[in-house]
Write a structure and sequence with these properties.
Layout lengths: L1 H9 L5 E12 L12 E12 L4 H11 L3 H7 L10
Antiparallel strand pairs: 1-2
Length: 86
């Protein structure tokens, strides 16, 4: 949705977006760019399929915008879950 709104605002010819995700658990020691170095980490691999007659520059910019969407920011930040019984 974030990509569609951005492209629409720029009048770019984005016809559709497909996002494919896969999840795995990896050893932290195997992750060169992770802060955590012990135990296991969740890893999400994301593939974006952008439909439309977009230039390479537009496609690259949309990939950057995907990292700024609210869901991506929440998943890549520290998350604290508080539970209470109602």
């Amino acid at each position: 949705m974030t990509l569609a709104l951005y492209a629409r605002g720029k009048s770019w010819p984005l016809d559709g977006v497909t996002v494919r995700l896969s999840h795995s658990r990896i050893h932290a020691a195997d992750c060169a760019d992770c802060e955590t170095k012990e135990g296991k980490l969740d890893q999400i691999d994301r593939e974006l399929v952008l439909s439309g007659r977009l230039s390479d520059e537009q496609r690259a910019r949309l990939a950057e915008i995907a990292d700024m969407c609210p869901v991506h920011r929440m998943l890549t930040s520290e998350v604290k879950i508080r539970t209470r019984l109602a």
